Amino acid sequence: MTTMSDLPETLEDEILSRIPITSLRSMRSTCKKWNTFSKTQIIGNGAKQSLGLMLRASRHYRDFHLCSMSFNLQGIRNEDDGDYVLKIDTKQVSIPEHIRIYKISHCDGLFLCLVEDKSSILVWNPYLAQTRWIKTKQYSRRFSAFVLGYDNNYNHKILKILEDHDCVGGLRYEIYRFNSILWEVLNVTSELYEWSNMHDVVSLKGNTYLFVKGNTYGWADEDEDEDEDEDEDPIETDVYLLCFDFTTESFGPRLPLPFSSDVGESVTLSSVREEQLLLLYNGWETSKMLEIWVSNKIEPNAVSWTKFLKVDTTQLTDFPDEFDAVSFFIDEEKKVAVVFNRYIAHIIGEDGYSKSQAFSYGPGLFCSYVPSLVQLHTNSPGENEGRDY
């Protein structure tokens, strides 16, 4: 009887090259040889596949389901006709501990998961099916952030940002180094002056980039009525990126954005396979313009941009007047962007092409995913690593 292991090598390679990431578990249980091979190399179309991980809310928002999503933007468009269809293959993902996750972030094929038990966090490699629990002090969902990165020697670390009014600037920074299993306070300064000014975060090439938006308000003369000051509109809005460099364990200077932004307008961050940073600017309260920019160069101390797309949203078919992008990705070959807004995906092209596609599930947190062979020192929830100071 011929088994999988008896197949010709060329045929075996062809089969493995066609396996979607969402079918890894079934593949590994099919053949012991393939299971071993998949732990040392990225197999299937994982190196080329556009894959995301999403937290999908239950009907009454009481809990969230973790789902993998593979995207396939189908269709051919000519100048005058043709259409795109967004095919999304959604598959629920099971974590061995069956925990309840309420927030995820991603770096280098690893996911940092915040769970209901706010005294621990979970690092997870879905490709290798490995998890690592890390103990931390109790934290607030609303006023804390955890981001994952690595230094030039590929040592992985976690940065924790906490609102703490006893600290200078009202923020406290701590770092966890995987090779020391210890949380330490970082005595660093940054141009993030208030917790509420941090609006979005994304990891890229081992470092973390924060979108910061802070307001400077005009001041009335002393003789003017104080009640008038309360409703005064901001006369200046600072918007910029900050990079936390995991090699130097410090923040870099302000990085400029390729546009100005006013109060009420939104900016969403994304990435192209952890190689380029993406910015989506949505001026729905003022200019009604939607812009997407791609980084040419991205470093802790420098950035340059190229415009990928710019459209007037008033000219798009069925595009909402008030629009806040939850997440987005681009198809560089087809020159279109897919922007998610709650239950609807908007496919947008610079030539004015627009199509809205509704889905039965949503709203959720979405992040791009590229498989990784990073090994984790696995443990169980009862074997939490991490000591405070």
UniProtKB/TrEMBL annotation:
SUPFAM superfamilies: F-box domain. Pfam families: F-box (PF00646), FBA_1 (PF07734). Residues 1-51 form the F-box domain. NCBIfam families: F_box_assoc_1. This is F-box protein. PANTHER family: F-BOX ASSOCIATED UBIQUITINATION EFFECTOR FAMILY PROTEIN, OS09G0372900 PROTEIN-RELATED. InterPro entries: A_thaliana_F-box, F-box-assoc_dom_typ1, F-box-assoc_interact_dom, F-box-like_dom_sf, F-box_dom.
